[in-house]
Amino acid sequence: VSAGNGCGHTLLTPHSGTLSSKNYPGTYPNHTMCCWRLQAPPGTSLLLAFGDVDLEPSEHCAHSSLLLADPQTGTAYGPYCRNSVPSTPLLVTNSSTVTVLFNSTSHRSGRGLLLSYATSQHPGMGASSPGLQRHPGIPDPPLTMCFSVYCPAGCKDIHGDIWGNPSQGYRDTSVLCKAAVHAGVIADELGGQVTLSRQKGITLYESAFANGLRSKRGSLSEKRLVFHKVSCLLFPACDDVLEVVAFNASSWWYEVDVLGQDRSWVAERAALSTTGHSWAAEPGTKAAWLELDLGTRRNVTGIITKGSSEQYNYYVTSYHVSSSRDGKNWRPYRGSSGQEDKVFEGNADSQGEVSNAFIPPMVARYIR
C-alpha cells in the first residue's frame, strides 16, 4: 500500500513491484511525502533494488530523504540523499515487511527516486533503470549467450525508451524490463522471469506498437537483446502464425459504393494478409464479434490486428477476447490478474499492426 501526496508511479504486488517519487524523473515537488508499505509472503524476505536515488544533498539528508525501516527486526536503512547514497544498488533484507518513507522540504533540484523490489524467491532481479544495467551477482553475458533475469512488476510506465520489436529484437540500450513487457514475455501487472540472449546488432530497429507500448525507431547498435518465451537453448516455434480454417462473425456489411457496385465486407476477409477491404460488422451493430476457427485445439500466445487499408480508413481501437474448445461454451480472457475481462488496446490508424500477447497463453480451437 502507499499513502501521501509525493507518490509517483507505483505498482505493488506480493512478489515484486516498482515505485517512484512524484514527477520522476522530473524534479520532485517541495513539501511532499510518500510512505509505501511492502509486504512479501510469509517465509520470504524482500530484496530492494535502487534504480535511482537523486535527492538534493543536505546535512544528514534533512531537506529530502529516503528512509527504509524493517519493523520485524527494528532495523533502519538510511536516510539517503545525493550526498549519502546506498552503498550497493541491491539491498537484501531479512524481513517480509519493509516500510519505505520519502519526504521533501524546500529544495531546487533532484530527480527523486526509483526503486523496485522482489522476494527472496527471485534473487536475480534485473534493473528497472534505463539501459542494460546489471545488479551485483549477475554477470555481464557474453555475445550470443543465453541468460535469465527477474523483472519486477510495474516496468511498463517507468522512464526510459526502448528500440525494436518482438521479432527483430531490441537495442541493448533499451530499458530491459520495459522491453520485456513490449515483447509480450511478461505481464506488467505481475512481472516475471525473462530469458534472453545478446546477439549481433542490426542496422535499423523499426518502431512497433505492442502490449500497450510503442517502441522508438532507432539505428544500429553493436548488440541486440532477443527475448525467448521459454529457454532460448530450445528456440521453440511458439511465434508461428496459426492457420485459421474458417471465419464467422455476428454480422457483416454489404455496401454499394459510389459506382453502384456491391462490396461485401464478409468475415473471410478478416485474414491479416488480405488486400483491399477487410471484414466489417453491419453499421450500428452492438457488441459485434469476429470468430476464428483454428481447426483443432492450439496453444494461442497472442494476436495481431490491423485496420482495413489506406483506401478504407477503418480500424478497431479496443476489444475483448473469448475462447472456446467446442464452439458452444465461451470463456472471456482475463489475463494474468484474473479479476475482470481484459480490454486489449487496438489500433490508432488503418495502416499499422498492433500486437498483444496472451499472458498466460490460452488453449482453444475457437477465438472470438
Shape: elongated
Gap between N and C termini: 37 Å
CATH superfamily of the largest domain: Galactose-binding domain-like
Give the number of helices: 1
> Which blocks of ≥5 consecutive residues have pLDDT under 50?
128-140, 233-237
Number of domains: 3
CATH-derived topology of the largest domain: Jelly Rolls
What pattern of helices and strands is seen along the backbone? EEEEEEEEEEEEEHEEEEEEEEEEEEEEE
Helix content: under 10%
Extended strand count: 28
* CATH architecture field of the largest domain: Sandwich
CATH class term of the largest domain: Mainly Beta
Q: Report the average pLDDT across residues.
A: 88
User: What percentage of amino acids are in beta strands?
Assistant: 35-45%
Strand count, sense and barrel status of the largest sheet are: 7 strands, mixed
Secondary-structure-based class equals mainly beta
Work out the radius of gyration: 24 Å
Membrane topology: Single-pass type I membrane protein
Organism: Horornis vulcanius
Domain CUB: 7-120
Pfam family, one: CUB
Topology:
Elements: E1 2-3, E2 7-12, E3 16-21, E4 33-39, E5 46-54, E6 64-70, E7 75-80, E8 90-92, E9 97-104, E10 112-119, E11 146-151, E12 164-165, E13 169-171, H1 176-183, E14 192-200, E15 204-205, E16 209-210, E17 213-214, E18 218-219, E19 223-228, E20 246-249, E21 253-256, E22 262-265, E23 290-305, E24 318-319, E25 322-324, E26 331-332, E27 344-345, E28 354-367
Parallel strand pairs: 16-28
Antiparallel strand pairs: 1-4, 2-3, 3-10, 4-9, 5-8, 5-10, 6-7, 6-9, 11-14, 12-13, 13-19, 14-19, 15-18, 16-17, 20-23, 21-22, 23-28, 24-27, 25-26, 25-28
